[in-house]
Design brief:
Blueprint lengths: L2 E6 L5 E7 L4 E6 L4 E6 L4 E6 L8 E3 L6 E6 L2 E6 L8 E8 L9 E8 L5 E7 L12 E6 L5 E8 L2 E7 L4 E6 L4 E8 L4 E10 L8 E7 L5 E6 L3 E5 L7 E6 L5 E7 L5 E6 L17 E5 L14
Antiparallel strand pairs: 1-24, 2-3, 3-4, 4-5, 6-7, 7-8, 8-9, 10-11, 11-12, 12-13, 14-15, 15-16, 16-17, 18-19, 19-20, 20-21, 22-23, 23-24
Length: 308
């Protein structure tokens, strides 16, 4: 039976968890509070640093560069420097800007992850600030690699979210939250391209409330999907479509993303949000916390750093 512990608190919109084996720490962000965070299980310490006036939606270490990370600053990708302790970061270099910025000033990068070759996959979207449900499909899923070229791989995205890669089966999984599905692609890691998109898992078919958000994959190739507004994490079969294997209930309703971590990669870290929606007040410290789930019987894959 799985066990759940609350390990960090007080995020408004916790997102983008990434376990770094080198530091044995979990990095994540609070998009609304414009901060990046580091949780170190050995000490229980949570360090926060501001990236204001910008918003950061993910933070991934750069391979071979101590204290350097690739992150988003609104609609830009950038390299930042942070020692993991102080409350401020230094912008080292802005790398590029999302192409969908030409369509609207409301464009922002969102979820991002590196494949095992160190190539960054980053989704961007143009969110309707007044009604998220009315967001138009103006976003894209991009790649950015050591050639410093931003390439659009998937277009017509509404809300770009979860990513997962399976090198063994040569598949990539991606979530456009407002589509309500986990989609599968054929994945060519050498070329850095995807093709043959198809729906893999549909929440509505099983009457699951909420929308799919962040996602990770375990060593058996199964997907772990955060459900925003659903108070749960889904374990989805990675080899058989439309198959739910397990559900983990989370005290917070707004579950945003997941990542495996710990020395044996057998701890599932779950980020959540505490956003007021339709006048429903969040409940602290339950909402907006980071949870650690143990005893799932599953292990994750090492988090890939960015190779520039």
């Amino acid at each position: 039976m799985s066990k759940l512990d609350r390990v960090a608190e007080n995020c408004v919109l916790g997102e983008g968890p990434h376990w770094d084996a080198a530091t044995q720490a979990l990095y994540f962000v609070d998009i609304v509070e414009k901060t990046i965070l580091k949780y170190t299980p050995e000490t229980g310490k949570v360090a926060r640093a501001s990236v204001a006036p910008h918003q950061s939606s993910f933070v991934v270490p750069i391979e071979g560069k101590k204290d350097q990370f690739v992150t988003s600053l609104d609609d830009h990708l950038a390299i930042i420097s942070w020692d993991g302790e102080s409350d401020k970061v230094t912008v080292v270099e802005k790398l590029c800007i999302a192409s969908c910025s030409d369509k609207s000033s409301n464009s922002n990068f969102n979820d991002a992850k590196c494949d095992s070759s160190g190539r960054l996959w980053a989704g961007a979207h143009v969110m309707d600030p007044l009604n998220i449900a009315k967001t138009e499909p103006l976003g894209s899923l991009y790649t950015f690699d050591n050639k410093r070229q931003l390439k659009s791989q998937v277009d017509n995205i509404k809300i770009a979210n979860g990513l997962a890669f399976n090198d063994k089966t040569k598949k990539m999984f991606h979530i456009d939250s407002l589509k309500g599905t986990v989609d599968q692609f054929d994945f060519d890691i050498t070329a850095g391209t995807v093709s043959n998109r198809k729906v893999w898992f549909t929440l509505q078919k099983l009457s699951i409330p909420g929308i799919p958000d962040g996602m990770t994959i375990d060593s058996d190739g199964n997907l772990w999907v955060a459900v925003f507004g659903g108070g749960r994490v889904l374990k989805v079969d990675g080899s058989k479509s439309e198959t739910l294997l397990d559900t983990i209930d989370i005290p917070a309703e707004q579950v945003t993303s997941v990542a495996f971590g710990g020395k044996n990669l057998d701890e599932l870290y779950v980020t959540t949000a505490a956003v007021e929606i339709q006048n429903k007040k969040p409940v602290r410290p339950v909402d907006g916390a980071v949870y650690k789930v143990t005893g799932t019987g599953s292990k994750g894959l090492p988090g890939a750093s960015f190779k520039l």
